[in-house]
Design a protein that fits this description.
This protein has 16 helices and eleven strands. The chain is α/β, with parallel strands linked by helices and 367 residues long. The protein has two domains: 163 residues, Spore Coat Polysaccharide Biosynthesis Protein SpsA, Chain A; 186 residues, no CATH class. The strands form two sheets. A seven-stranded mixed sheet has the order 3-2-1-4-6-5-7, with helices on both faces. A four-stranded parallel sheet has the order 9-8-10-11, sandwiched between helices. Strand 8, helix 10 and strand 9 form a beta-alpha-beta unit. The longest helix has 23 residues. The radius of gyration is 20 Å and the shape is globular.
Length: 367
């Protein structure tokens, strides 16, 4: 028997954060329901939120309150494994897996159940979905505060063999920002339960349409900057009609703690320090006809750690909602850039980008 566990905790009290939480709760419910259909015999939702608990309970999941304060992913997971006597476990954060089908999850379960000592993940460097057995391997590792480094620790410290899921929009997309949510809604396989959720189409839809047209147009050039992995680069080479200029920096930054230690360094960060926000985006416009920007690498280089409310406002180009002057000036310059631009985090240059390319070739917008 295998257990499937979805974790959800609210990001904050601002309207932008709560709107994203609504999307993430809906995704968590969809994924739990599909996991049950895929044959996972025990479903759990780990949350202290009443709205999320109701949504997860409706799928047949048992609700387990989180007990750590502040929340510690590894300690919570270890406690659940011991209390429920689990041996084969798949864990995912609410927001990830929206495009995973019942067949995808069934294949994951069968792979898990046919193995004796393995960890499967969507990304071994920075995971959102992790399936492993035996669950007792948690006793042999330094329990991580977040899910991102779990597969590497299970492999390196507990000796489990490590395998990654096939890379796709379904395996890589984790809706962690308003930008991710807006792109999910454009994908042809977006579940019907999620398609009509409020996902900032009024704010970002025009930008997304323009970037989709670039992706499918020869002789155009797209600039992609941030934590881009080799699988995404390979996908881009074969699945885009345009040229792509890639600036890949600081892959694994968060899992390694370089964003909080002050060690993160970015070539674009050095440029930004030299020329300032307006000239920075003018230079970016010389490198491509449009841009996808994992801006958190730049922020780590600059030592910026904006709260989620202001960070979300920046993703949405709402400079008027940002009190912090350097971030407001960055956002104003990004908003006024004379080329289509999307801002986001790591997912923007991995699963969300993959999602956008698939959606573009599916005819969104009409070509």
């Amino acid at each position: 028997m295998s257990a499937f566990i979805v974790f959800f905790g609210r990001g904050g009290s601002s309207d932008l954060e709560r709107q994203l939480d609504t999307v993430k709760i809906a995704i968590g419910g969809v994924v739990l329901a599909r996991a049950g259909q895929a044959g996972f015999s025990r479903l759990y939702g780990v949350t202290n939120d009443e709205e999320a608990a109701a949504a997860f309970r409706a799928t047949g999941a048992a609700i387990l309150p989180a007990r750590t304060e502040p929340f510690h992913f590894g300690q919570e997971l270890s406690r659940i494994v011991h209390e429920k006597k689990l041996d084969r476990v798949c864990t995912i954060g609410a927001g990830a897996g929206a495009l995973l089908t019942v067949q995808d999850l069934q294949g994951l379960r069968e792979d898990l159940e046919s193995s004796e000592a393995v960890v499967l993940s969507n990304n071994s460097y920075s995971a959102d979905l992790v399936a492993f057995t035996p669950a007792s391997a948690l006793d042999a590792i330094d329990l991580p505060a977040t899910d991102n480094p779990l597969p590497r620790r299970l492999h390196q410290q507990a000796g489990l063999s490590s395998r990654q899921m096939e890379k796709s929009a379904a395996s890589l997309l984790d809706v962690d920002t308003p930008t991710d949510a807006a792109l999910l809604a454009r994908h042809p396989r977006c579940p019907a339960e999620l398609r009509d959720l409020p996902a900032w189409q009024d704010d970002l839809g025009g930008r997304i349409d323009a970037l989709m047209r670039i992706v499918t147009t020869p002789d155009k050039e797209l600039l992609v900057a941030g934590r881009v992995g080799a699988p995404v680069w390979t996908f881009i080479e074969s699945q885009t009609a345009c040229r792509v200029r890639m600036l890949a920096e600081e892959r694994g930054m968060q899992a390694a703690g370089r964003d909080t230690s002050g060690e993160a360094r970015s070539a674009l960060g050095f440029l930004y320090e030299l020329v300032g926000p307006r000239e920075f985006f003018a230079k970016m416009g010389e490198l491509g006809d449009g841009m996808l920007f994992d801006m958190l690498v730049l922020f780590a280089h600059l030592g910026w750690r904006p709260q989620a409310e202001e960070r979300f406002a920046s993703y949405l180009f709402k400079a008027e909602r940002i009190a912090t002057k350097p971030l407001r000036e960055f956002t104003e310059a990004a908003r006024d850039a004379p080329f289509p631009l999307l801002l986001g985090g790591h997912t923007l240059v991995s699963g969300a980008f993959w999602t956008m390319v698939e959606a573009a070739w599916a005819g969104h917008p009409e070509l």
